[in-house]
Design the sequence.
């Protein structure tokens, strides 16, 4: 479903009826940012899974200019479900996987190398420590504003109070064969198997 | 007498002049035809030794499931070149035979048949793809999802990657 401001329409809860999971990827202006945040928060609270990619949590007071964020910075989506809080990225930068940062998890089972082209996710830490975690991050780059390295894979896992699971991919999940793509399949074949 | 000569010249010229592109292509030898197992908007590519033309693709191209007469809507490109590409405007059923064919303006008939990728690992799991991206980026993402073959991915306004559920049990198209 297209939720871009250019050609799409706002997301509503009824759009998600009958689905067990959602893949949400944005890097352009979103039509109905608040509506998308509300619908996805409700979907996650019902115990469904959501995978995020692209720039779903960047705001526009810094180096990022697209209204691509889902929800509002203090809204229920950003505060309760998105593993990474809304933020203005200090720089727009990719990078290479920091192998030592990879945490044991079924999601990282085959993650041994990956180079992010273009815009990474632009966050270093999750919002909360008790139900969210960064499973892998990119290597720190001097002067980038990310002293610990940007997150490459961040998760919000399910709890009794919040049964949904959310995964945030710190790259654009399409290849560089298309404009803006976040990986080169020849260099990072693992990126195409998320 | 001069009128007869002129008439004769006109006939001869008509016989030896190159045929209009819309009527014949000369050498229409098929060099190769490529189809793959994709279910999401698959492409079939017919490559010829020389440029070929299709003046009425809707009647000269056929793309259907084996054993069915229902045509799958396709977009045809490449007329006037050596490569004719048929792209299905939708999603095909999994594990099913399909047939694509072309009848060129010179009546050359070429056809290919193939089988689509099998059932997803989780055919009943439906994932909603929600994007604010350029269309070509969305297309690439969904093609990768199709090839990963993990789940049934539903695409707005087109068909199911997996076999459709029984009539009356299919949620409204989005």
Sequence:
């Amino acid at each position: 479903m297209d939720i871009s401001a250019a050609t799409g329409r706002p997301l509503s809860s009824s759009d998600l009826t009958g689905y067990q999971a959602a893949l949400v990827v944005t890097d352009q202006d979103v039509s109905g940012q608040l509506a998308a945040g509300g619908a996805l928060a409700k979907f996650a609270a019902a115990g469904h899974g959501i995978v995020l990619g692209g720039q779903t949590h960047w705001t526009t007071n810094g180096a990022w200019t697209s209204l691509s964020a889902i929800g509002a910075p203090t809204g229920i989506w950003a505060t309760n479900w998105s593993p990474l809080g809304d933020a203005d990225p200090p720089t727009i930068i990719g990078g290479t996987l920091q192998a030592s940062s990879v945490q044991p998890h079924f999601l990282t089972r085959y993650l041994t190398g990956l180079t992010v082209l273009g815009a990474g996710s632009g966050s270093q830490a999750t919002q909360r420590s008790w139900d969210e975690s960064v499973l892998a991050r990119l290597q720190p780059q001097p002067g980038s504003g990310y002293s610990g390295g940007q997150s490459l894979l961040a998760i919000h896992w399910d709890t009794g109070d919040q049964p949904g699971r959310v995964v945030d991919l710190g790259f654009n999940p399409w290849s560089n064969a298309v404009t803006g793509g976040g990986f080169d399949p020849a260099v990072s074949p693992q990126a195409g198997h998320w | 007498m001069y009128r007869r000569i002129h008439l004769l010249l006109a006939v001869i010229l008509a016989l030896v002049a190159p045929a209009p592109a819309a009527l014949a292509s000369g050498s229409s030898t098929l060099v190769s035809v490529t189809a793959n197992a994709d279910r999401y908007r698959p492409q079939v590519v017919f490559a010829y030794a020389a440029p070929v033309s299709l003046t009425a693709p809707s009647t000269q191209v056929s793309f259907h499931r084996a054993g069915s007469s229902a045509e799958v809507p396709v977009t045809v490109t490449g007329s006037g070149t050596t490569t004719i590409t048929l792209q299905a405007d939708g999603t095909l059923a999994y594990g099913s035979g399909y047939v694509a064919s072309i009848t060129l303006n010179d009546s050359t008939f070429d056809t290919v048949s193939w089988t689509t990728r099998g059932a997803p690992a989780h055919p009943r799991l439906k994932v909603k793809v929600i994007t604010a991206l350029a269309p070509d980026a969305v297309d690439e993402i969904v093609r990768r999802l199709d090839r990963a073959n993990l789940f049934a991915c539903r695409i707005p306004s087109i068909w199911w990657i997996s076999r459709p559920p029984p009539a009356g049990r299919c949620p409204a198209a989005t």
